[in-house]
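During the reporting period the student researcher (J.K.) took over the structure-prediction task from the postdoctoral fellow and processed the backlog of single-chain submissions. One of the processed entries is reproduced below for the supervisory committee.
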Amino acid sequence: MKFREHRGGLAESMATVVELDGRAALVAHVKGLLAPFNFKGDIEAGLDVRPYDPLGLDDTRIGWHTHIVTLEGYGVLGFTDGPLKE
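J.K. obtained the following structure tokens:
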């Protein structure tokens, strides 16, 4: 799956796109992103991925079936191009 970080605009966000293989890879990536901030929360337990558009529409700008990635105690981390693979 593709993951992009939450940024001020779409172009800035798309510049951060990485390919990840499932939940474990996303957790590892998020741990790396938050390492400089000494985040103390449980990343694995607090990570949530759900459809960004409740109607399930694709983002026509980039062709993604966008899902929002949030972390308890932090907020929005970014977005994936589809549902999370375990």
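The committee noted the following: Residues 22 and 85 are 5 Å apart (CA to CA).
J.K. will present the remaining backlog at the next meeting.
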